[in-house]
Queue: 3 jobs
Job 1
Amino acid sequence: MLQSNRQTQPTSHKRPAVNDEFMKQIIAELKHELLDAQGVALGLVTTAIARQLDATRLTQDLEQCIAAAEKLGRLSPTGKLLAIRALSAAEAESLYQSREKH
C-alpha cells in the first residue's frame, strides 16, 4: 500500500469574534423578554382566578401580601414587578366586574 507523506490535519473553522457589548445587550434583551412573558402569564392566571372569585377581595389580598413581603424584605425587584402585574390584572378584573353589576 502506498502511503502519502502528507498528514491529514483537521480543518479548523474560526468563529467570528463576538463583541462583549453585543452579548451583554442580547442577554439583557432576553432577560427583559423572559420577565415580560412571565408577567403576562401571571396576569392571565390572576385574571382567570379573579373571574372565579371576588376580584375586589383578591385585589385587596394581593395588596396586603405585597405590602407584607416588602416590609419583611422578601420581595426582590423582579418579584415585586411580577406581583404588581398580578395586582394590575386583579384590579382590571375587579373594575370589569363592578361595571357588569351596574
Job 2
Amino acid sequence: MSIGQSLNPYGHIVFTEEDELDYKLEFSDHQFYIEYNNLILKGNHLLKVDSLLITTDKTCSQINTIIRIYNIDGQLKFTKRYFQIYYLEAMSDNQSVQFIDSGKRVQLDLIDFHDEYFNGAEPLSYNKGHLVIIDSHRNHVDFGKQKISLSSRVLDLKTDQDHNTYIFCDSSFYKLNTDHEPLEYNYQNGRFFQAKLIEGNVYWSEKKFVFDEMIFTLNTLKNASLFQLQEVEFDYLKKRKKIITKSNSNRFTNEPIPSPLKPDVDSFPFQIGNSNAQYQKYGNSEFVHLGVDIMGDIAEEVFAVKDGIVKDIIAFPGDLYCHIAIANGPGPDEQGYFYLHLEASSMPHSKGDEIKAGDYLGYLVEWDVFDFHHIHFARVKSFNNIWSCSYYYGLDNILTDLTNFVDNSAPVFEKLWEQNTIAFRSIINPTLILSPDSLYVNFDILCKAHDKSNSEWRVEVNTLRFELWQNLNDISPIYQQAAFNYDIDLPFKSLDETPIIVNTIYSTDGIWVSQGDYEHREFFQQISQSNGDGVIDEFDQNEYFDSTNFPDGAYTLRIYATDAVGNESFTDLAIKIANNPVSLASDHFSEQIKIFPNPANEFIYIESEIQIEAFRLVNMLGQTVKTGKVGLKHFQLPAEKHGEYLLELTFNDGKITTRSIIFN
C-alpha cells in the first residue's frame, strides 16, 4: 500500500502525508473570521479548490450556513445563505463542490456559481465527464448512458484515477467503468464504515462486532481482487463507563440522566457555557439555544447516557459540528439524545448500531475560539420520524435532569436603570422609561438576570416569576405571576416558533438590547410579557402589566429567579401606582403642557410652551390608532371611540412624554 494511510483506533482512515490547510480562527462583533496566508476571510471552515478559497460560516447548528467563495487574493466572488451545510467537498473535476443541505445533495458550480439540488442525500461523482447520480427512490445509478440497479441503500461513492467509480452500499459495493460491465463485490469483514480517496486510489474500512470488540479492517481493490491491508481492534466494552444516576431528588422534572462527560462520577461541578432557551445572536441571526453546552477539556471522552439505537450521525473530517443522535428505541415516535461537537475521527459508531448506557461515543473537538471546548447536549424528538439535524425538536431543559451536576451559586440580578434592578417601559415607545414613583395604566416590567454555573460564562436562569406586595410583612402578596419557565420544548431550526420565543422573553430594541455571543452576554427579560400558562406563544406577545387592576398607592415589586438545580434569588423595588389624571402630569413637562378637556366628547386640545413635532395615539391594546406630524405649539385632536388612550408627544428637542386621555 502507499506510504501513509492507515486506520486509527476508531476505524477511520488517516493519511499522514495529507496536507491540511493551516489557518487560524478569530471571533469579533458576532462574526467568525479565518486568518489564512495574510488574508482575513469570513467563516469558520476553509476549503481550497485550485485557486479558489471556499469558506462556510456555520456559527451554530441552529441557524443557516453561509458559503462564501474568494479568489486566491481574497476577493469575494460569491456568497449565498443555505439552510444548513454538511459534507462540503470538492468534486473530482475540481470545477464544482458538493454538500448536503436540508437532506438533499447540492452541486455548486465554481465557474458560474449555479447550484443544483438532487433528490436524496447520496453523494455525486464525475467519471470521464459524466455525472454519476444515485436514484435512491428506485435504487439505481445513472452512469453515462447506463442505468444500473443496486442491491441496497447507497452509503458513499468515490471515483479513482483510473475512472473506476466505487459505489458503497449496505450489503455490497460496485465497481463501475464506462469501458466494462459493472462488478459487484461482497464485503469480507463486516459492513461498510468509511471510504477515502488517497493519491488517486480508493480505500475503505469495514466494521464488525466480535464479542466485546469492534474489528475494523482497511481494504482496497487491485486487479479486481480484494486486499485487506490492516486490522484494528476497538474494545468498546472496556471503554464503557458504569453510569451513576440518582432518581430520589425532587428537582428532576423529566428523565434523570447523568452528564455525557464523566457519567461515572457521582457529582461534579460541570461548567455550563450555554443553557436552554438562552438568547443568542451570531451575525444577523437571533435565536434561542436548544439544550445545554457542558464545558470539557480538549479530546475529553463523551459517553451515552441511555440505551438506544444510532439514528443519525455526521462524522466529516474538519467539521466542528459532527454529532450523533441516539433514539431510545426503534419506534417512529421515540425520543432520544443528541451529542454535538465530536471529533470526526474519534467516532466508531454507524447508523443502526445498538448503544448501551455508558458506551463511548467519541471525544470533544478542539474549539479554537475562547477555548470553548464543549458538548452540546439535548434531549430531542424527530420531526415526522426524520432523524436529521434540520428536523429535531428539543425537549425541555436537560440541565434540570443531570443527576451528577452540582451548582451552589444562585442567579444574579444586575442593575438596569440608575441603581435599580427592575425597570418599567412604555408599551407604546420602548425608549420611554417610566419612573417607579409614578406608574400608570399599562407598561412592561423588565429585569436583567443571569446565572453562572461553575464558570465565568453568563447563562440563563431556569424560571422567572414576580409578586406584588402591599406590605412585605403580610402573609402573602396581593398578586403573583409566573413569567418564564425555560424548561420548555424548542425547535432546532429557526422555525416560526423561534422568533416568537425570542421576542417574547427578551428585549431586543429600545434602550435594552439583549446580546448573546462569545464576547457579549446581556439578557434583558420582559417578565410581564407572559400570561403565566407556562407556554411561550403568540398570545404572550401582547401581555403587559395593567396597573389599573390595583388601587393607587405604594407597593413592593419582587422578582424571583431560580436556576436549574433550584438555587433561588430575588430582588425588590418600591413602586407607586398613580392612575389619577393629576398624577399623570407629574413629570418635568407638567408645567409646560396643557391637555383639555380630559375626558373629552368632541375635541381635545393640546397646548405646549415647547414646539411639538409629532404625536401618536395608542389604545389600551397597544395598537396605534393615529399618528401625525405637528410642528406647532398647539393643536387639536378629534375624539375617537369611547375609551382610554395614551397620547405620546415628541418635542423638537427629541424628548418624549406620554399622557393618558379619555374620550366619552
Job 3
Amino acid sequence: MARATPGHDWLRRGSAFHVVKRPCGEFLIVNTQAAVEADAQDLSGSIRKFLQEQIAGSPDNEIAILTEEFRTSPRIYGYLFGETEPYDDVYREAVAALGTAMTSSSGPVRESTTPAGFTYLGQFIAHDLTRARAASKTGECESPALDLGSVYGSRDEHKAPDGRRLRTGASYGGIRYKSLDRDVFRRPDGMPMIGHPRNDDNLLLSQTHVAVVAFHNALAGQYPDWSYDEIKQKVILTLQAIALYDFLPRVADREAWMRVVIERRGYWYGDRHNGRLSDVGIPAEAAFAVLRFGHSMVRPAYEHWNGKKGDPRDVGAFVGLSYLGGGLRNFKVPGDWLPDWTAMFDMGRGEAKLKAQTIGCTLTGFLDHIPEDHLPKSDRNERNLASRTLLLGAHARLKSGFEIRDALESDGLDGFPIDAGNLVSASPAVRAVFNNRQYEELRARPPLWYYILREAEHGASQGPDGTCSRLAGVGAQLLCEIVAQAIRSACPSILAASIGDLPIGTGRPEDARMSGLVSAIGDADWYAAAGS
C-alpha cells in the first residue's frame, strides 16, 4: 500500500491496529489480518463496515472513537503545540472517571448572563470549522475556514430551483410564516440534505441552521438585483462579523479578545506567523478540546423556548427531534415545537428570557447517557459525552493544560489563572477523582478540555454573583485565535479590505449582532408565531 505523505499523517496505534489520516481526505486502516483503503467520499459505508467486522467488540475503543471522528471530518488534522508523550491505561481510566464525575450533579441550573442561543450558535460555528469535505480532483486540501460550507456545501448544491434562494423544508402541519419554511430540507425519509448533516444533531442547532438559510432567502427577496453569489458573500461576511464581534466577546474574556481580534497578535495568529496554518489543517486542540467548551453551556431544560408556551422541556426532547433521534413527525419537525429565537437572543429590548448555563466543570446530567442512535454502531460502550471528549484528547495525545499554558507564557503572553493550587473544581465528585492516589497524573497533566472549563469556572467564581461566564486564560486565547484564523483564511473574509456594508444593523462589521440577523429575516415575531 502507498505510504502517506510524511509530515501530514495522523497515526495512532492501538493493539494491532493502525489508523493513518492522509492528506486530502483519504484514510488507511490496517491491522495484522486485514486492510481497507477508502476515499473520503465513500467513508461512511466502507469504514463502518470494516469497523463492524474487524473492531466491533474490541476492548480497545481508541480506534473506534478516533476513526469515527475522522469519518465525520475527513481532512488533515495537525497540532498547534505538538504531540505529548502517550498516556497510559491508568490515565485513560482516570479521564473516563473524571468525565463521569463532571456529569454526576443534579443540582439547579447555573444560569449565566449569556443568552442561551449562543450555545447553539457556537456549535454551528464549530461544525462549520470541522465539517467533512471530500478531496478535490486536483488533490488539494481545503483548510479550515468559517465560510459556511455547512450551509452552502462544496459546490453550491443546496440552491432552490429559482437559482437564488436556498432549499428549505416545511414543518409537520405545514406551518409557514411570511412564506418561510421552518425546517431544513430533508429527503422523504427525513434525512437532512444540508452541507453538514451534524447540524441536525438537535432541534435548537438545526433551527440555528434554518435561521441562516432564512437570512439568505430574506436577502434574496429584499435585494432582487443581487445574484446568488452576491447574497452568499453577504451572508458569509455577516456570520463572520457576528462570530468576531458578538459571539467571541460573550464567551471569551475581554483581554484575550482585544489582544487577538483588535490588536491581531497571538501565539500563532498575526504577523509573527503570517496568519497561516495551512500546514496544520484542523488543529487537533480545537477539534478535540477547545471547540467543545459549549457542552457545559447546555441547560438540563428550556423554558420560554416556544413563543408563549412556558412549559420546560428536557434537553433530551430537543435531541430526539432530529433524523437520528427518531422524534420527527411524518419525517418533519413538528410545527408546535419550533423555537422562539427572540427569547434565546437579546433582541435589543433588554436581556434574553433564556440564559445558557455558566461554563464550568459540571455538565447537565443528560450528557452522561447520549442516545445510542447518535453514536457510531462500532462504539456505543462509552455514552458519557464528557468521558468521550476526555478520552479523545488522551487518544489524540493532546498536550495538557499546563503544557500549553507554559508554551503561551514562554511566548510572552500572560493572564493564565489556573495552577496546581486551584486546578481542582469544587464539585465533590470531581474532587474525589483528583484525590484518588491511583490518578496522580491527572494533577500533573490535566486534560486540556477540563483545564479550559476550570479556567472559566474559576473566573466566574471570582465575580460578584458567579453569572459572568466566559473562557479565560488558555481557553480564551485559543478560541479567539482559532476563530479569527478561520475567518482570516476564508474567502471571502470580513478581515479583508473593502468588503462594503453588511445588510444588518448599521452595516459596520463591529456592530453585527445575531439579534440583527434574526430581525433581518423580515420579522422577529416570525419565530414567536409558532407558540401563539
